[in-house]
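This is your field. Have a critical look at the following sequence-structure pair:

***
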Amino acid sequence: MVKIGLIADIQSADRGDKGRCLFRSSLDRLKQVVELFNAEGLDLVVQLGDVLDGNPQDEEGLAQSRSELDRVLEVLGELRCPLEHVVGNHCLALPRPELLRRLGLPRAQRILEIQGRRIALLDSLAVSLYDKNLDPQDLEEAHSALALGQAAGEPWAVDWNGALGERQREWLRRELLGPRRPDLFLCHHPIYPSAARARFLAWDHQEVLALLGQNPAEPVTWISGHDHQGGRALDGANLHWTLPGLVAATEVRGLERQDRDGFELFAPRLSSSTVSGHA
């Protein structure tokens, strides 16, 4: 079994609380989670997006975001296993090229192989209005997806969501049809309506679900963050698990374990008050 620790929506920031988001104390809870992960002898930890909350993208705000990210990475640096990252919407408070460099990522969308298992790390902000570094094609797709969703009154058609987009979906399609299909899918945005509130779903969640469902004999495990409330749902043999946000927690109560298709998955067991709509 491959032992993987998962954590979502740390959203650390040097500011007072807002609604149910406890920004400044999130770092203390992260330290607890790192200690719990280290006690399990994990093979890998994956941070599922929104590692920081972010600030305005002026000179002062960027400097503050860099400092806040450095403090989170210092805590994560205490992990005694490899660490990987997924990009979330708040992460893009820093320009994408700088963010990827600071996180040590060659690119946001990629396949990771560990002990013969393949993990798809996906970028649900590849098409979004958060990313100021989009090329014209992706920017046009983002405006179109948001406008079409808003015209149809879809609850997920909000500017703090995003999409994998046409190009990444084509890449995913090829991976799914290849000789070694991914065994685990990790992404910031949830895609299954019963596993998260509708306003937190990726813009193209229906298209992605259709892709994943082309071979029903192959079960899907999709783990995400973004909706701080969290959620979990089974769709036949498929598991969709939305981790609750660390930033919205009042207490870390140990780890939850989920055995799934050759993986032993660990996530913080959190206590929190009623969660607001912040993501």
